[in-house]
Fold this protein.
Amino acid sequence: AWEQPDLLAQAEGGIALFLHNWPETYSYTLSEAVAHGLFPLVPDLGAPAERVRRAGFGAVFGFPIDAGEVLRAIEQATAREMPDRAGPAAFATHEAAEAHAALMQESARPVAQAGRRAGRRRERDRLSA
């Protein structure tokens, strides 16, 4: 049996090319590739393109996919010099911040609901007194 992280650790090269032709919703494969230091190239379709743009790490090429455009994206990716601020850490930091914000929103919802219920009880008690 193979494990994806083991395969990525053994991979030679520095880019991860995604050629999906339907809108992906998140793409854990993108997360794994970036975590292993690969520079992602994704089509302008779905969440992977949004994630790459927000993180500022990776490149987005047009959709529908054109072979010539993909080849140019590969050439540019292999010739690039990585800016100091970009890289897997920048991608992961953005992802972690989004996950933390979502968790905080989810956690705050029950507290807010409980506060409203308590306020309604106090108002009922005040009116019935």
Q: What stands out?
A: The mean pLDDT is 80. DSSP finds five helices and three strands in the chain.
